[in-house]
Amino acid sequence: MFEKIALIGIGLIGSSLARVIRCENLAGHLAISTRSADTLKRAEQLKLGDSYTTDPVEAARNADLVIVSVPVGASGAVAEAIGPVLKKGAILTDVGSTKASVIAQMAPHVSQGVHFIPGHPLAGTEKSGPDAGFPDLFKNRWCIFTPLPDTEPAALERLSEFWRRCGANIDTMDPAHHDMTLAIVSHLPHIIAYNIVGTADDLEAVTKSEVIKYSASGFRDFTRLAASDPTMWRDVCLHNKDAILEMLARFSEDLASLQRAIRWGDGDKLFDLFTRTRAVRRSIIEAGQDIDAPDFGRQAVGSPEKKTAE
Amino acid sequence: MFEKIALIGIGLIGSSLARVIRCENLAGHLAISTRSADTLKRAEQLKLGDSYTTDPVEAARNADLVIVSVPVGASGAVAEAIGPVLKKGAILTDVGSTKASVIAQMAPHVSQGVHFIPGHPLAGTEKSGPDAGFPDLFKNRWCIFTPLPDTEPAALERLSEFWRRCGANIDTMDPAHHDMTLAIVSHLPHIIAYNIVGTADDLEAVTKSEVIKYSASGFRDFTRLAASDPTMWRDVCLHNKDAILEMLARFSEDLASLQRAIRWGDGDKLFDLFTRTRAVRRSIIEAGQDIDAPDFGRQAVGSPEKKTAE
Ligand SMILES: NC(=O)c1ccc[n+]([C@@H]2O[C@H](COP(=O)([O-])OP(=O)(O)OC[C@H]3O[C@@H](n4cnc5c(N)ncnc54)[C@H](OP(=O)(O)O)[C@@H]3O)[C@@H](O)[C@H]2O)c1
Ligand SMILES: NC(=O)c1ccc[n+]([C@@H]2O[C@H](COP(=O)([O-])OP(=O)(O)OC[C@H]3O[C@@H](n4cnc5c(N)ncnc54)[C@H](OP(=O)(O)O)[C@@H]3O)[C@@H](O)[C@H]2O)c1
Question: Which of ligand 1's atoms lies nearest the C-alpha of A70?
Answer without folding.
Answer: 24
